Amino acid sequence: MKAKITIKDIAKELGVSSSTVSRALKNSPEISEETRKKVKAFADLYHYKPNMLAQKLRNNKTMVIGVIIPEIVHHFFSRVISGIEKIANGRDYNVMICLSNESYEKEKLNIQMMANGSVDGLLVSIAKETLEKGDFEHFNELKDYNIPLVLFDRISDKIDCDKVIVDDIGGGYKATKHLLNVGCKKIAILSTPDHVNVGALRTIGYKRALEEKGIAIDENLIFKVNDNSSITKQISTFMHNSNLSYDGIVAVNEIYAANVIKIAKEKDLQIPNELCVVGFTDGLISSFSTPSLSTIDQHGITIGEHAAELLLDRIQNKTANKEYQRKVISTDLIVRKSSEKNTVL
């Protein structure tokens, strides 16, 4: 087996110092572009790989960041992870991913395991059960271990840390405003229980759009879906309620929206002529539903990138004494067949 080439070997061959090679490989502006190109070309030619173990020992770091998400099958979270990995890998960090499965106890266990020297920092989207309990002590204990924390998407203001969130109020507003613009008169929203902040905030945006139009809020058209029982049965019960009338539905996630499409077909409702639907999360379900689903794009990759940057800046002491930041990512409406009607001006 060939011996691995080292920074010292590259420095000797090119007649420069080891520190020059190290900085050139990190693309430091202190090194001339010509030297950087020479060093990188030589390193590529001989398949140079940095000694990660030596870096970890030298920096007293694991070079790993932990991510805890509520579920893996959700398209939004998979996009967030893509953004996190892009930034982390670009800064020589690896990513360890754990699932809470929406469980408070599982979330606590994941944090305890990762805080035991496995990672240098944590990125977390809070489990629904934790939000419902309102017990965040396991997050606040991370300060005792000097482990930086960044929350994304599902957050709590009771936890002091950096946060990256979607403009959920704006998203709910855009979805509802769109349905009003295509002529819908009675719009329902399928939301979450109030302890899940993203659903509650999207409902605020929904109400704001209706009030702006001078439409009274009908609380009977605000349906809160409980994920602890059958989602399909709950939505079906709501949609088959003969005492309710509606010609538009905002669903606060892709699964709820897909169920609306399915149940509307069972009721022989023509979409979008009799019922218009807008969901959240621009995933494969939205693209390949029949008809295709109009949706609010939450830009999961961007959220992941910002969250990872905030965390790594804390870990690498670039913002050690800086006040905690709260970044809000705007949403975009994507119009597809489920609401594609002539706009009413």
From TrEMBL:
Residues 5-59 form the HTH lacI-type domain. GO terms for molecular function: DNA-binding transcription factor activity; transcription cis-regulatory region binding. The keyword S-adenosyl-L-methionine does not apply. It comes from the Bacteria. Keywords: DNA-binding, Transcription, Transcription regulation. The keyword Lyase does not apply. This is Transcriptional regulator, LacI family. It comes from Cellulophaga lytica (strain ATCC 23178 / DSM 7489 / JCM 8516 / NBRC 14961 / NCIMB 1423 / VKM B-1433 / Cy l20).
